[in-house]
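Internal QA ticket QA-208
Title: Verify multi-chain structure generation after dependency bump
Assignee: T.L.

Test input:
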Amino acid sequence: MAKDYDASAKAAARALGFELKEMEGWLCCGAVFSNVNDNLMTKAGPNRILSRAQKEGGTLTTLCAGCYNVLKRTTFHATQTAASQQAINEFNEEKFTGGVEVLHFLEVLRDRIGFDAVERAVKTPLKGLPVGAYYGCLLLRPPAEMKLDDPNRPSIMEDLFTRLGCTPIDYPARTQCCGSYLSVSSSEPSEGLSRDIMQSASNSGAKVLAVGCPLCKYNLESARKGSAAHSGAEDHVPIVYFTQLLGLALGLDPQQLQLDTHQMQRISESQSEVAP
Amino acid sequence: MSVTPAKRVGVFVCHCGLNIAGTVNVNEVVERAKKQSGVVCAVDHKYLCSEPGQALVRDTIKQQHLDAVVVAACSPAMHESTFKNVVQSAGLNRYNCEIANIREQGSWVHEDHQKATGKSHIAVRQAIEKVKLNEALQPITVPVTNRVLVVGGGIAGIRAALDVANAGYEVYLVEKSGTIGGRMAQLSETFPTLDCSTCILGPLMVEVYRHPKIKLFRLSKVEEVKGYIGNFKVTVRQEPAYVDVAKCNACGECAKVCPAEVPNEFDMGLTWRKAIYTPFAQAVPPAYVLDAKNCLGLLPQACGECRKACDKFGTSCINLDAWPQVHELEVGAIIAATGYELYDATKLTEYGYGTHPDVMTSLEFERMLSASGPTSGEIKCPSDGRTPKEIVFIQCAGQREPETGLPYCSKICCMYTARHAMMFHHKVPDGQAYVFYMDIRAGGKGYEEFVKRCQEERGLLYLRGRVAKVYEENGKLIVKGVDTLSGKTVEINADIVVLAVGMVPSPESHELASKLKASLDVYGFFAEAHPKLRPLESPTAGIYIAGAGHAPKDIPDTVAQASGAASKALGLLSSPTLEREPTVAKVTGELCSGCGICIPICPYTALSLSPITKVAEVSAALCEGCGTCIASCPSGALSLRNLTDEQILAMVEAIVAS
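Actual output:
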């Protein structure tokens, strides 16, 4: 899962002149940041990752919004609660003291590379492509800890897509939750939420939905598959990673970006619909 | 200083019920105090500030022939003057009394009984050492200037100014804008009686304007405040109105030709006004005023159309060459009535204010309700002018949210929202109002009844819960919220959404407070000297506070506080002289080299070089006893009365030795 995200991000980075290096000894972040304070075990995993990242230079980039959320919040809390941090470090036998900068790939593009540089590197602008950016919640919330963008009116993805030549579509559900891990235990609520999101985007005129999280993508796609009864316009909206659109605009081969024929067809159709 | 031999010291320890005795072992403090040298007796009492307690102090002083007293009790901010009065009434000099604070700095802040007791003992010891070296001092008498400065021309400032003036004293009323009236002038009706706001405010505004004892400085700002209680010297800068009030007959010819249009702040930006304008129909003074910031050009004159029109059709009352005026005012007391501002609703991105024109603040909605407002009192959607059928009111918008907004409750929103919803139903009988609320806080005379009446008679739908999001879809505002009583999420298609945003201090209050040396609370509201016992006074002597600049409050509370502040100021003015604390700096002439380092350092301009002796002199009336000069003196010639180096060292020794 999410091989397409990985491949497209790495390829896009290379096209922009930098390399994403896989960190040594990475492990699962735990997938959810635990708000429980008396069970430190849930915090061992992310702290282990961060202590290793600290040794490797202190900047950790993530693609998955879930990992980003867990790791960034862990860094935030490491500097807040000294006593429990010491206990975690002793258990892990690896020391993490808060000196890691956790970045989402979007943040790298905005703050390190700069959208100006991205724009200059665009070879085949996705002229007029009506893209709905889907943020979900983990990228943005809780805002005091994530500090990526305004949690209610974010613009980082739209700003990027504008530079790629697209026409970003503002739609109400773009920061709504997709149901997250509910899809594992009971898929109904998450399917409902995901369908609302797709409908909202489609109603506002989005022809492509771009995401920055594998779980969001999975939930949106499963909701579509799971409900054969529905077949609205939203069912024809391909769901892609923002890195795939970035790669296309940078002139990379769709195959290298792992965009399938169906997705590519929808994207070029949508573009020709809007282009005169 | 010569030490008078062996002062007989008495120590009085207060239990303060269980406030002190619950944590501090009072008996132990008493027993240990008895062993200190110079202490003749030590006793305790359950409530030392009560009359029996005070009598105990008085009687013991006489029976034991005490020379000095240490009271171990609450903070000196609370009862220092009480016990000094007791000591004085027993025939001692009031400065032979010291307070050891064992409550605020002892029992209240410690849990470990033994350590709290030990600390209390140290506090008592150092007070004993200090009082032994205290001089007998006489209060300094200074004259009182019997005029009052009121800053802010809203209902608080108006009421305070009128009360002081009606008592026969002169008042200077400083207002930043072109008219007095403030926020109350913008209101349509007032709760819970639905009085027309302008109808009850207007006559007061006129009364201020006509009052022989009130001098109004509009378009003015306090620039500098010098002096102290009873004797403030205030510099006020007044911007020109460019229109002669005496000649202007408000014909409006000038505004007709003015080419500069700006959002009208009186209508919360819902309408436009010209750069030369009258703020509103009842404005006082009733004349046009030129807003120099938005005028196309005064220096150099770029337009001048208004003057041409005035000369041709009007009364030739426009003078575009007017200059700001600086007024030097001498007053005895200052009342700060700086009012409030609305919390910036654009920060509440979840509600879409500033993105959707039909999402409004409560004050914008208020203007729409007003007969003098942008729609002459009709309710219309700002986006397209249609009559709204479904309206959603969101109470506590950005309030009671410590993480993202204001942590406090603004107190008035429950009431005005009920009124707004009621007025909506009155004006749009087939419409439906929904009110999202957290709690209904209707504490006030007739308030609960008013809210109930609105809910029951008008069929308002009150939903207990918060709104998560407001967004636009197909030309309608979708309000997504939760009704926590049914436990269900709610989605309402609304035409207008009204945000009951909170009150924040007006931006000028911060600047004014620093000029007045008055303290502000964490939110920037004026702090009171004591939340319960001195709510009308700033901790800075001679400064009184009134209205929403102190805390969010409604009109009845504001008016009551304004009258209270006025009567406090009148109390001060009622005596021709005033006693000031004599614990001020003094110069030992023989030690002073006349270097003058202390002179620019003094924040109160109390120091100068004597032209005759060429050494530093302290003006006791100006000195606040802050001690800055003492720290700066290279030759140790300056000292503070009753807090000399000798005393500080004795106190340190007492602490270290304990």
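Spot checks passed. The radius of gyration of chain A is 19 Å.
Status: verified.
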